[in-house]
Design a protein that fits this description.
The protein has 318 residues and is an all-alpha fold. The protein is 75% helix and 0% strand. It has 2 domains: 3-67; 90-317, Orthogonal Bundle (MetI-like fold), CATH 1.10.3720.
């Protein structure tokens, strides 16, 4: 079937099926008592979404964990063999070290710079303009940002902005993406450029929620602006900082686009997600790829739980 015709059919068929399902559910519920219908209605209404969630998310996750205990062909059970290899292979060790660098530096710099910008432009005339400019990178994808920064880092001064600045100051061109750990740090800066605006917007919203009366009371008591920020603003903003930081940490753990686009994992820039893809496609090792995916999933889950708990705490306070 022609792809265009298939797309049009899907666009028309899905709403029709959903409407038909709703009509059918309500027709069936009318055959029950009001009390029974009230109990069944939520279950029947979420059944399609729950089914899709199970088919496309829960089942693949369970199947991935199950596959990680088998060999390359999936015929022989090898227990924790794929996991042992993950933690003993030199390439995956490099990926782990790089992921640690991403987890430490990306949230620290992005949240730190975002907080500084949010505080400095809070309630000034050009606040909207500054926020718009800083937030602008969020409008493009990580792949597009990687392409842009690949040119910024280019060793040719006629192309690379950084090396044009270096040679303009009398220095020699630098191979920013060749030598470790400089190359990993430069890749992290692409992520910082992307998510600083996100951190700034969320933190700025948190700042707006702080009562100006508290700040004025601190100033009346003789506190300078730094003391007001350190003793009043930052403690009140800390829950928001934690939420933003954990969100960026999740991005850092599953980072893939920047590394894949800019270096492909070469020059010791490998990360776990990119390693997983290599195990699956070029190396044709689905068992190892499944083990890598499972490890990445287990690393992200605790942080997601912390993030959800903080959201609930904030909602409870409100």
């Amino acid at each position: 079937m022609d792809k265009t015709l298939l797309a049009i059919t899907a666009l028309l068929l899905v709403p029709i099926v959903l409407v038909a399902y709703i009509v059918l559910v309500e027709w069936v519920l009318r055959r029950f008592s009001q009390k029974s219908a009230d109990k069944l209605r939520p279950v029947l209404w979420i059944f399609p979404a729950g089914t899709l969630l199970f088919v496309f998310l829960v089942y693949p996750a369970i199947a991935t964990v199950f596959r990680s205990f088998f060999d390359r062909d999936g015929g022989a059970f090898i227990g924790l063999g794929n996991y042992v290899r993950f933690f003993t292979d030199s390439e995956t060790i490099i990926a782990l070290i790089n992921n640690v660098l991403w987890v430490l530096l990306w949230p620290l710099i992005a949240v730190g710079v975002g907080l500084i910008i949010a505080v400095l432009v809070d309630r000034v005339r050009y606040e909207t303009v500054v926020k718009s400019v800083v937030f602008l990178p969020m409008a493009i994808s990580f792949v597009a940002a990687s392409v842009i920064w690949s040119m910024v880092y280019d060793i040719n001064p006629n192309i690379g902005v950084l090396n044009a600045a270096v040679t303009g100051l009398g220095g020699e061109p630098v191979a920013w993406l060749i030598n470790w750990p400089l190359n990993t740090i430069m890749l992290i800066m692409v992520g910082v450029w992307m998510l600083t605006g996100f951190a700034m917007v969320i933190l700025s919203a948190g700042l707006k929620g702080i009562s100006t009366e508290l700040l004025e009371a601190a100033r009346v008591d003789g506190a300078n602006e730094w003391q007001v920020f350190r003793n009043v603003t930052f403690p009140l903003l800390l829950p928001t900082v934690a939420v933003v930081a954990t969100t960026v940490i999740i991005f850092a753990l599953k980072t893939f686009d920047v590394v894949y686009t800019m270096t492909g994992g070469q020059f010791d820039t490998e990360v776990i997600a990119n390693r997983m893809l290599k195990e699956l496609i070029p190396f044709r090792e689905p068992g190892r790829a499944a083990a890598t995916a499972t490890i990445l999933f287990l690393a992200i889950v605790p942080i997601m739980i912390v993030n959800i708990r903080r959201f609930r705490e904030q909602e409870a306070i409100r």
